[in-house]
């Protein structure tokens, strides 16, 4: 701040030094002017000028120091009150801008809420024709055609489900209920939803649950498992997917292992990034790069740690480590 102050007042300081030097120069040229007296006056005026600078530094920088330390929010109270005319101009202008930003923010927030409500309404409305379509597909006599139609139906269903949770995850704290959740019905419900797809690809499931219950939100756990299982089925062919749970100290671990193509080591650190798709998926227009990103966001909120181990050509293991009871103090009241 001192350096900025001297840079701001550099013209004043240079002007003062020029005047002092000019007086000394005149006294040096004119013998009638006592040089020692002028030198003494220059010395005294320099002392006074330094004291004046010190006083003005404290006076002038207080407002800007408070402004620099101000948090980047829209709170009026954090805007320092100016004392000098120029400081008052800055303070009043900032308050005017904050008013404008707050109005625009409220307007944009309302617009986003309306858009979100409209989209959620549309998704829910789509579920009715999808359910009817599923019943019609079940009545198709041609088994090959029925499997193809069921697969396409499932893709639409999963995309709508992903979009629904993507909109809900921003306000997830309002949609969480922590309780003891039985793993078996949740897992088998998700397997059942993928049954036709798994049959067409020759994929089975080997489920072994030593630990049967976890403390979490059942609905969001289903969503997390749905994303992991969908990827496991998508990238596997004619192989079983292993699902097992076990107790590790006070934590429950759930492992989901597939024997598909695996994940490239270069891609592994980025699989939870928003919109990330591997190089092998760039030609796949159906890959959105949002499933694992949303699953990780939901898991982080529920204090579920997700670890991934993978070898290209051998398969991938997702490990979900559920929190202890005392880690849910913040979520328990929701």
TrEMBL record:
<dbReference type="GO" id="GO:0005524">
    <property type="term" value="F:ATP binding"/>
</dbReference>
<dbReference type="GO" id="GO:0000155">
    <property type="term" value="F:phosphorelay sensor kinase activity"/>
</dbReference>
<keyword id="KW-1133">Transmembrane helix</keyword>
<keyword id="KW-0472">Membrane</keyword>
<dbReference type="InterPro" id="IPR005467">
    <property type="entry name" value="His_kinase_dom"/>
</dbReference>
<dbReference type="InterPro" id="IPR036890">
    <property type="entry name" value="HATPase_C_sf"/>
</dbReference>
<feature type="transmembrane region" description="Helical">
    <location>
        <begin position="37"/>
        <end position="55"/>
    </location>
</feature>
<keyword id="KW-0418">Kinase</keyword>
<keyword id="KW-0547">Nucleotide-binding</keyword>
<dbReference type="InterPro" id="IPR004358">
    <property type="entry name" value="Sig_transdc_His_kin-like_C"/>
</dbReference>
<keyword id="KW-0902">Two-component regulatory system</keyword>
<protein>
    <recommendedName>
        <fullName>histidine kinase</fullName>
        <ecNumber>2.7.13.3</ecNumber>
    </recommendedName>
</protein>
<keyword id="KW-0808">Transferase</keyword>
<dbReference type="InterPro" id="IPR003594">
    <property type="entry name" value="HATPase_dom"/>
</dbReference>
<feature type="transmembrane region" description="Helical">
    <location>
        <begin position="12"/>
        <end position="31"/>
    </location>
</feature>
<dbReference type="InterPro" id="IPR003661">
    <property type="entry name" value="HisK_dim/P_dom"/>
</dbReference>
<dbReference type="GO" id="GO:0005886">
    <property type="term" value="C:plasma membrane"/>
</dbReference>
<keyword id="KW-0067">ATP-binding</keyword>
<dbReference type="GO" id="GO:0016036">
    <property type="term" value="P:cellular response to phosphate starvation"/>
</dbReference>
<feature type="domain" description="Histidine kinase">
    <location>
        <begin position="121"/>
        <end position="326"/>
    </location>
</feature>
<dbReference type="GO" id="GO:0004721">
    <property type="term" value="F:phosphoprotein phosphatase activity"/>
</dbReference>
<keyword id="KW-0812">Transmembrane</keyword>
<dbReference type="InterPro" id="IPR050351">
    <property type="entry name" value="BphY/WalK/GraS-like"/>
</dbReference>
<keyword id="KW-1003">Cell membrane</keyword>
<dbReference type="Pfam" id="PF02518">
    <property type="entry name" value="HATPase_c"/>
</dbReference>
<keyword id="KW-0597">Phosphoprotein</keyword>
């Amino acid at each position: 701040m001192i350096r900025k102050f001297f840079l701001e007042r550099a013209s004043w300081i240079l002007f003062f030094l020029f005047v002092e030097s000019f007086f000394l120069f005149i006294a040096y040229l004119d013998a009638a002017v006592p040089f020692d007296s002028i030198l003494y006056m220059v010395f005294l005026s320099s002392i006074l000028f330094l004291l004046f600078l010190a006083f003005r530094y404290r006076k002038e920088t207080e407002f800007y120091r408070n402004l620099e330390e101000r948090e980047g929010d829209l709170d009026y109270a954090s805007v320092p009150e100016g004392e000098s005319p120029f400081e008052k101009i800055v303070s009043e202008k900032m308050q005017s801008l904050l008013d404008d930003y707050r109005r625009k923010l409220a307007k944009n927030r309302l617009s986003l809420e309306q858009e979100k409500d409209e989209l959620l309404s549309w998704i829910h409305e789509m579920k009715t024709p999808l359910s009817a379509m599923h019943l019609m597909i079940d009545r198709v006599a041609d088994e090959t055609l029925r499997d193809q139609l069921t697969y396409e139906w499932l893709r639409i269903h999963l995309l709508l489900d992903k979009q629904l949770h993507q909109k809900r995850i921003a306000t997830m704290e309002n949609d969480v209920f922590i309780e003891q959740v039985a793993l078996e019905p949740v897992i088998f419900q998700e397997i059942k939803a993928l049954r036709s797809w798994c049959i067409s690809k020759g994929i089975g499931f080997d489920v072994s649950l030593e630990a049967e219950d976890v403390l979490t939100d059942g609905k969001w756990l289903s969503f997390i498992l749905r994303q992991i299982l969908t990827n496991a089925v998508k990238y596997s062919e004619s192989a079983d997917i292993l699902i097992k749970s076990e107790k590790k100290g006070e934590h429950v671990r759930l492992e989901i292992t597939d024997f598909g193509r695996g994940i490239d080591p270069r891609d592994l650190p980025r699989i939870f990034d928003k919109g990330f798709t591997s190089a092998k998926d760039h030609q796949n227009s159906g890959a959105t790069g949002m499933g694992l990103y949303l699953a990780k966001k939901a898991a982080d909120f529920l204090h579920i740690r997700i670890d991934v181990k993978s070898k290209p050509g051998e398969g991938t293991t997702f490990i979900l480590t559920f929190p202890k009871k005392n880690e849910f103090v913040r979520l328990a009241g929701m």
